Amino acid sequence: METLRLLPKSIKIEPNPFGISHQRNQIFLKFVAFLLLIGLAYRLIIADSNVSPVPDVRTSPESLPADPSDLTAVTQAPVSVDSPVNITTIASQNVSTKCDIFIGNWVPDPSGPVYTNVSCRHIQDHQNCLKNGRPDANYLLWRWQPRDCDLPRFNPEKFLDKMRNKWLAFIGDSISRNHVQSLICILSQVEEVEEIYHDKEYRSKIWRFLSHNFTLSVIWSPFLVKAETFENMNGVSFSDIQLHLDKLDHDWTDQYINFDYVIISGGKWFLKTSIFHENNTVTGCHYCQGKNNLTELGYLYSYRKALQLVLNFVAEPKHKAQVLFRTTTPDHFENGEWNSGGFCNRTMPFKESEGEMKNVDVSMRDIELEEFHKTAQEGSNSNIGLLDTTSMSLLRPDGHPGPYRYPNPFDGVKNKELNQIQNDCLHWCLPGPIDSWNDLMVELMLNREMYR
């Protein structure tokens, strides 16, 4: 800048600018150079002023306190001006409202769940981790944060109001039961529910929120298609499962006309040894082990067949129910499976780049997405939506009962590492990560047009 201040003094302007030719050219060239230097300096100053001196600030999962009582130490990261804080803000700014609420991360939430294992009486014993002696509680202090937008908190009052005179049914296996218990625990903080039916195994149930005339069901149908299963009380098979891949399970189809909303899912049961029937003929099996010279078709064959039948049924125009198809739930067994010493003893979520699905889960999820999109594209007014909980669940290896599916599993055990206690690394503690499934579910049910 000192050079620029001195430069005008070195330029001598002649009284007659139209005098000698070479002097005029020199003056003109010097004047042009002066203007160029001034312009360059201006551009450098302006460019420097647009660089922010403030670095990005992020809240990492490690910032969560080890002691749950020290929650005041947890603070949320400031909201970026480049990221909309919620869906309403996006719409008001005339920005696309499309947001993938299934991709994101778990962030610290010191407020914790809206219910406890004491304030909710509907938690199954196997999922009541704190009552069963789980010593840590940090797994309760996280919430799901989509990458590109904010996910509204579950509002039980608003949900019950929207569900007045409606019927919501969950159809599937024990994960569906786990999910519906989570929903009931949240809603029961506003209105207590009354159980009005259960089957003899207590696997299928119906509840009613009387003041809203809202009916809620869970229907046990682990294969979704007709199946004959042969198991003892511990879930151990004593004969091969007979799967009818061209016939739906009437336990749920016969009731389907009553439903306004449906959450439906399949999954892990297809991994069990089973014999396949189609057109009243045995066509093959999964995990045949050389029995009766049957053709080994595998679980992916039966799963695809079952999903095609299910999705075609729920997509029929005559059906009024709005359907959410929930994707597969990955387990987190390490160093073995449920029956071979596998365990899950992590106490922190994975970050987005850390979780890795097993090949079984990847294959099942691929089939789910293929069949869902095929069905959704075929129907111009499709009533099916996708509830993709797989990615968010993959990141929560800390949210399972593990050994705490039974009370105080290590009582009297001197060496825990040598003890062969059966772990549950598939289902979810209540309260726990599965509560956030309801945030997604409600957002999709009440604002489904935004995610089509």
Automatic annotation (TrEMBL):
Belongs to the PC-esterase family. TBL subfamily. InterPro entries: TBL, TBL_C, TBL_N. It is a single-pass membrane protein. The chain crosses the membrane at residues 27-45. This is Protein trichome birefringence-like 25. Its main location: membrane. Keywords: Membrane, Signal-anchor, Transmembrane, Transmembrane helix. The keyword RNA-binding does not apply. One of its GO terms (cellular component) is membrane. Residues 98-150 form the Trichome birefringence-like N-terminal domain. The keyword Metal-binding does not apply. It comes from Cardamine amara subsp. amara. Residues 151-443 form the Trichome birefringence-like C-terminal domain. Pfam families: PC-Esterase, PMR5N. It is found in: Membrane. It comes from the Eukaryota.
